[in-house]
Design brief:
mainly alpha; globular
Amino acid sequence: MRRGYKWVDRELARLDPETDWERMISLYVGYKVPEFALATMLYPGTMRMMQPGPTAATLAHTAKLTTRPERRYQDANRLLMAWMVDGLSGVAGRAAADRLNRIHLAVARATPHLPGNFDDTDDFVYPLVLLATYGDRLQTSLRLPGTAEPMKSAWHRWAQTLFRLLESESGPLADAYFPEDWDAMTEFAVKFDARPYEPTEAGHAVATAMTDYFAERWFPAPLRAFGRDLTRYLAGERVCRLHRIGRLGPGRERVVRLFLKAAFRALRLLPDYRTPLPERVRRSARVRAVRAAGINCR
């Protein structure tokens, strides 16, 4: 495959989202998405997912987000890379779905005091809808061009296919409802977000830990306040109010929006990656491990 400056878009233009959707997602995520963009989706997205009280209670019970946030981040990356880059029809993608199913079942069995936390179909639909529509929602909120129609179709097929591989406490979701197209996915997300959720101590504790971890992992000490503001902006005002993690004033929001617009414009100008995202993520993890070992040896 010949790879020029912006080679991914040329490859995507030759593919049919009805038959080549898996390849389209793999190319797009593997060679156009920086690791930082993945992180901006994971943590604010998790805050949105735990708007329902039972979900927040389960995440607080497992404590991984608060006590082992780097391990949680790497585990989530491995799942996403298997699903998005390796593909859902391959061994790695299906194994990752099976692994998540086993994790959910184990947590459900370990939390009899939190019944039904993995039995609401909407709690499976919503995270996949978020993953599929995140980039479009963010870019259009900044008044930037959103996702192209072929990629919308590819993302819908990807999310729907992954949903069919997952299982609730009651059994496989293969025959359960999933939004029938891109527009139905976005409508589902809007309605899910608009439900009347109640604040919980669990939601506050986990969201605070995630906000702090994101800022500490990606920003030097002088810029960590900005890192927290970025997380709040991406999570959204309603979610921040629900989890009581602070709010953005107009001035600070304007700074965050300028930063995000500049980041998207830079991505449009910079060449596409030659190294796939999974390798870049592994390389980043090795660098962090070496640095941590060096600090511990001082």
